[in-house]
């Protein structure tokens, strides 16, 4: 791996099952953390025409098997407002953790 001032770049990943992926965690007030990519969680799906409209996948699965409804893509919030909107949706849906892409 190569290090940069602000982030780490991994030159190769042998197997996705050996890696960690990003989740939003309700127990951390919507902050992000890593989890095994094989964990079964719903994923965050962003509306392709409205960056602040999210929905959650209706099924829970591994990070590399997202299933978003038509008009939505597996994504993540890009600012604090979007993060807050997704956090509120997660709480309203009684989900404790969701995948972010």
Layout of SSEs?
Layout: E1 2-3, E2 8-9, E3 20-25, E4 31-36, E5 44-47, E6 54-56, E7 72-74, H1 80-92, E8 97-99
Antiparallel strand pairs: 1-2, 3-4, 3-8, 5-6, 5-7
Polypeptide structure, described:
With about 100 residues, the chain is an alpha+beta fold. It has 1 helix and 8 strands. The protein has a 3-stranded antiparallel beta sheet with strand order 4-3-8, with no helix packed on it. β5 (about 45) and β6 (about 55) form a beta hairpin. The chain is globular, with a radius of gyration of 14 Å. Residues about 1-15 have low confidence and may be disordered.
Question: Could you write a compact summary of the structure shown?
Answer:
The two termini are 21 Å apart. It contains one helix and eight strands, in the order βββββββαβ.
Percentage of residues in helical conformation: 10-25%
What's the end-to-end separation, in Å? 21 Å
Query: Main beta sheet, described?
Result: 3 strands, antiparallel
Number of strands: 8
Strands of the largest sheet, in order across it? 4-3-8
Low-confidence stretches: 1-14
The chain-level structural class is alpha+beta
Average pLDDT confidence is: 86
Q: What gross morphology would you assign?
A: globular
- Report the total helices: 1
Order of helices and strands: EEEEEEEHE
Please tell me how large the radius of gyration is.
14 Å
Strand content: 25-35%
């Amino acid at each position: 791996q190569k290090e940069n001032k602000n982030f780490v770049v991994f030159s190769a990943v042998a197997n996705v099952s050996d890696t960690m992926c990003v989740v939003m965690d309700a127990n951390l007030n919507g902050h992000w953390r890593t989890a095994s990519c094989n964990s079964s969680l719903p994923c965050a799906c962003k509306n392709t025409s409205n960056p602040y409209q999210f929905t959650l996948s209706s099924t829970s699965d591994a990070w590399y098997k997202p299933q978003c409804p038509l008009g939505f893509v597996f994504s993540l919030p890009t600012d604090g407002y979007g993060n807050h909107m997704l956090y509120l949706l997660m709480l309203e849906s009684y989900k404790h953790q969701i995948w972010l892409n």
